[in-house]
Design a protein that fits this description.
Chains A, B: Belongs to the peptidase M20 family. Two copies of one chain form a homodimer. By secondary structure, chain A is α+β, with helices and mostly antiparallel strands. Helix content of chain A is 35%, strand content 22%. In chain A, the strands form three sheets. In chain A, strands 1, 2, 3, 4, 5, 6, 15, 16 and 17 form a nine-stranded mixed sheet that branches. In chain A, strands 7, 9, 10, 12, 13 and 14 form a six-stranded antiparallel sheet that branches. A two-stranded antiparallel ribbon of chain A has the order 8-11.
Amino acid sequence: MKVDAARFLRDLHELRNFGASGVGKGVVRPAFSDADVAARRWLAGRFAEAGLRVEVDAMGNVFGLADAPSLLMGSHSDSQPEGGWLDGALGVIAALEVARAAREAGGPAVSVVSFQDEEGRFGGLTGSSVWSGYTPLPEVDGIADHGGLTLRDARQALGDLVTGDVNPAQFTGFIELHIEQGLTLAAAGEQIGVVDAIVGVRQIPITLTGQQNHAGTTQMHLRRDAFQGLSRFNTTLNDRLRNVVTPTTVWTIGQVDLHPNASSIVPGRVTFSMQWRDGDADRLRRMERIVRDCAEEVAGDMGLGVEFGPMWELEPTAMDTRLRTALEAGAETVAPGKWRRMHSGALHDATNVARLMPAAMLFVPSIGGISHAFEEDTDEEDLVAGLRVLAEAVARL
Amino acid sequence: MKVDAARFLRDLHELRNFGASGVGKGVVRPAFSDADVAARRWLAGRFAEAGLRVEVDAMGNVFGLADAPSLLMGSHSDSQPEGGWLDGALGVIAALEVARAAREAGGPAVSVVSFQDEEGRFGGLTGSSVWSGYTPLPEVDGIADHGGLTLRDARQALGDLVTGDVNPAQFTGFIELHIEQGLTLAAAGEQIGVVDAIVGVRQIPITLTGQQNHAGTTQMHLRRDAFQGLSRFNTTLNDRLRNVVTPTTVWTIGQVDLHPNASSIVPGRVTFSMQWRDGDADRLRRMERIVRDCAEEVAGDMGLGVEFGPMWELEPTAMDTRLRTALEAGAETVAPGKWRRMHSGALHDATNVARLMPAAMLFVPSIGGISHAFEEDTDEEDLVAGLRVLAEAVARL
């Protein structure tokens, strides 16, 4: 099987035009936005041109199917509100090129998928989560984005493409190529990372409630200031976690909504996102205990109310040994001495697909480790190296 | 002169219907909102019925004028995005009742005003600031609210009422009745506070800039997290200020805008409001030094960029002795032994009007010290007590 690097790069750059931010190579292509819908229609056309049978499920996951049984490859084509051109898109277009090359070579049978809403406009990894049966569609259908639009309404934009459910039983396994989104490979000057496990994640919205009041007349000792509660929670938590975490553990307060958010008013309420990730399920549990105790304690000390929203949790996921071994052999052929085994600190659709079938993942470097930002980029020779490793692995399976 | 308490309370409750929030007695009547415009048209009608000459300046300040020379009384009728029914409204309606009673008694000459945008949709104390000549209208006209609407465009809603500039030289002084918006009077079981000085305020927007990145793949020691910078700034500042402040000094971070504000992204930028108030101009200056040094130092330590926006500053304002003495005599008559002299921790239109003429202020208690919230309220007998003190003082001038 012979992949065509130029054809692969052409398609990758063409996909970038859907939702181009005009800032570097950045894209604004959140799930079900006009740009995302247009990109998915374009992908469906490309899949068909490649001789694949296009099927789209109710969630908006777009498949290009070879005759069963086949190996499934792909990722997602939606982006963060301010995203890079490779996050997800690389895995979809590389899968398309391998599927094309495989058909031209008379086999093996390779199918392609672009999952919907990996970036979590309506949750997190929503498309693969629903397809894997982990989350029932009716359950997430009511979720609204920041603008108040529900998934149920957003899905209408792709309604005319929907063909129905796509049976996972027809696939022998799943391989996803993705950018690392970290500094490990770039810092080491390596081209390829073969993932051995995807870290687990916990995320919980926390609300602290105090007393909204006038910022000029309310003496400091009488205040119940929700922002001060958040600040003390953050400081206390950072201190408490030191004894529990490893150098690869991460935790983030990335979203903060203060109410009423006015400069002359003591904030009466704050809702913020508390997220933490680690490769060890037990450590994730211990961190949850610390997060909850910290919030309860700080709220108690400061006379604030505290509420925990529903926790989103994904366990760490080990990659399939057979698929991983094929990727390692491919890596050694394409980039001898310039690859490594590593954890994935980011979640990926492979996390959900692994519930259904053997799954594996491959990384290429991210320049400066930057991702989820317009500046996200990767040297084209590394992109092509990733494509070739996929082809080598598929040929071996 | 005999004020009519029932007529006063009727008008006060009628004004509450404009922008009624449906939560308690709360109102949603920001400057130039439909509710505010309707309320100002209603006020203009009430002023005319009281035999006052209605004049409205380009800024939307609504005057009811007696023959010059006259004593000006009033406050503002716009509210916070989530405001109480008395903040501003009380001073306007009490002034209207005193003006009516004075006319019925054949004098003295009392004029009434409702200043526009005291609550700062387009700055802060905007209406009285422009009328006092402190801020040129063309300078604030370009200011946009959170929704992007500029003051220039918002002003059109009252354009048909505008009669032109209102000459301050026709007024012999200004008296403003207002709720305390704090706990001092309520805690002491007192009915009246005669203001001796209004505290000064400083407010500055601060932006910390780090590196937006993926919350799963960016190791903690490689992060430049803008939210972590804000949290450390807040903790450090609270600690540094302890040596400088008094029990009446206040400081507030009331507005926080995190970017991009997503749970799976390390925040790359945060802009927040830093506000502090004190009765001593020198202390305000020393606090500014600490705020700026703290931000520079934390940003330096954490590899963040720091930018300071334009500082909004108002110096502490002493009240006029002659007017204040008349209010104190009135207080001793209406509420013997149940009144005190006090600072105003809140800014008021009197701060600006004091640039033009002798000015004084009177407080009535706020239940629970709550204001800038739907729950804001005051016992009606305290409201009437405030009205009577105004009348007593005016009779003495």
